[in-house]
């Protein structure tokens, strides 16, 4: 693995055709979401303004990618009943969609016969896999990212994502349980 992994933003800016994201954890504790998550826990209200300081960097990045023809898809494998964190993600997904993402949800029991990677990931243009490593409590691990481009690994991860995507329920009709 190379020592200098490009940033996620650099990889997204370089994408030409596709960027797909597979999320499989039921809980994350990533620092940049802590305040927003705690506000949602305490009030039930989530920042849903695509132009807010919280969302603008993401919305701009994804919107630029989509404008240049990149198809951005996100699939989430979730346990049911869902955790508070998944409820929080579900509440904010409308902004992902406004930015141009397609989002689907797959209840974990419907994924039991799929061979899934051991970490969340992004696949860019079907040629690079960016693994996202987290600790057991959902914080970024050290190192947090691992970029791989071996054709066998890319194919396995792409096949796994497509299998999840095929079974998953579009956000617009997925009901939180």
UniProtKB/TrEMBL annotation:
Protein name (Swiss-Prot/TrEMBL): DUF6879 domain-containing protein
Species of the source: Streptomyces griseofuscus
Location of the DUF6879 domain: 7-174
Superkingdom of origin organism: Bacteria
InterPro entries registered for this protein in UniProt: DUF6879
